[in-house]
Design a protein that fits this description.
Blueprint: H1 14-61, H2 69-76, H3 82-117, H4 129-143, H5 150-170, H6 177-201, H7 204-215, H8 223-250, H9 254-259, H10 264-286, H11 292-304, H12 309-330, H13 339-363
Helix pairs in contact: 1-3, 1-12, 2-3, 3-8, 3-10, 3-11, 3-12, 4-5, 4-6, 4-7, 4-10, 5-6, 5-10, 8-10, 11-12, 12-13
């Protein structure tokens, strides 16, 4: 004979049950928060390990010169002379560091604009930053190539001038992201047309130099360029950390973010300027390396979630550019090629995949 089980009704008063339900909900939220923190830590550690491995490969495998194994580590710190110093300290180390740092800036810039416009396809290219930088740099490269630091300075000036113009023309008592994108696309087209016109009136040698810059490469970066990129990464990283609370609140919508105390308009302007600064500084040193800004943010969001992906996007961008540069120098049949060619080959299929996924979501 088996005893039948009966469910005893909960006779406790509602005032007693409610705190239990709240406690269960709070415990579930804390457990979810801890799981996401562990995932973020694991993914960050894996990306850092991958970055270290790629950096070592970039220093060890780059170029055609042979350096004794015992000389590589001292030469990396500038403690050797002759061929080891030239191959490691003067050539491979600046190139590897430039790839790492510029990739971090491109990744951060893309993530900021994707968060600002709330579209994974949004990049600094959409609002014309790359086109403005290209127009400025190409003008100097074609007509004043001997000007010291002319191309980097012109690229920065062109980027910020275009961002300021986009912001001014899209301002209607505030910045609407839809109007911002439309104005950016229009001005970007004007800059591309201007750049193409310059190519029709310049000489062939200058055109070749300008075209190489427009493809994007870390080949000729010096230690001065690396220093500029390092300062840019540090400064942009601090500013992104300061903007992070407002950016997280803005994922809930402007009204709710304002209700939570976020200054949405100021955060949007700060995000716009910071993204422009990161992209402009990277472009001024290595040229407009394509697709890195586009793919870094979606990859990071897929790994750890959209609300925690801004900082991780910088790591993803660094991995993408460093991996592309290693392949650009060492891949059979295709090397050597500019780094921007490899990022385009890697990024274009991912861009098509993003477009198809967006199209599927729109039809369902």
């Amino acid at each position: 004979m088996t005893a039948s089980r009966t469910t005893e009704p909960d006779t406790r008063p509602a005032a007693t049950r409610a705190p239990d339900q709240v406690a269960v909900t709070v415990a579930a939220l804390r457990a979810g928060h801890r799981r996401r923190n562990r995932r973020l830590t694991v993914v960050s550690a894996v990306l850092v390990a991958l970055l270290v491995a790629l950096f070592a490969a970039s220093v060890l495998l780059g170029g055609v010169g042979r350096v004794a194994t015992a000389d590589i580590l001292p030469a990396a710190f500038g403690l050797r002379t002759g061929l080891a110093d030239y191959m490691i300290f003067q050539t491979r180390m600046p190139r590897a560091l430039a790839a790492l740092l510029s990739g971090a800036l491109f990744g951060l810039s893309g993530a900021l604009y994707q968060r600002l416009i709330r579209n994974p396809l949004a990049t600094p290219d959409i609002v014309g930053i790359s086109a403005g930088a290209g127009a400025g740099a190409v003008t100097v490269l074609l007509f004043a190539p001997a000007l010291p630091y002319g191309a980097p300075i012109a690229a920065i000036v062109g980027s910020f001038a275009l961002v300021g113009l986009v912001h001014l023309l899209s301002w209607r008592g505030g910045v609407d992201t839809y109007r911002l994108v439309l104005v950016g696309i229009g001005l970007s087209g004007i800059c591309v047309a201007y750049t193409n016109y310059l190519f029709t009136v310049a000489d062939q040698h200058s055109i070749a130099v300008a075209l190489r810059w427009l493809v994007g490469s870390v080949n000729d970066v010096t230690w001065e360029g690396v220093t500029t990129l390092a300062v840019a990464v540090a400064g942009c990283g601090v500013c992104a950390a300061l903007l992070s609370p407002s950016l997280r609140a803005m994922t809930l919508g402007d009204s709710l973010a304002t209700g939570l105390g976020a200054r949405v308009s100021w955060a949007r302007v700060g995000c716009l300027l910071l993204g422009a600064a990161a992209a402009a500084l990277a472009t001024s040193i290595v040229g407009p390396i394509g697709f890195v800004s586009l793919i870094s943010g979606p990859i990071a969001a897929r790994l750890v979630g959209a609300d925690r992906s801004v900082a991780l996007s910088a790591l993803v961008g660094a991995v993408v550019v460093l991996a592309a540069d290693v392949l650009a120098r060492n891949a059979p049949l295709i090397s050597p090629v500019p780094t921007g060619v490899l990022t385009a080959l890697l990024g274009a299929p991912y861009f098509v995949r993003l477009l198809l996924r967006r199209g599927q979501k729109a039809t369902t």
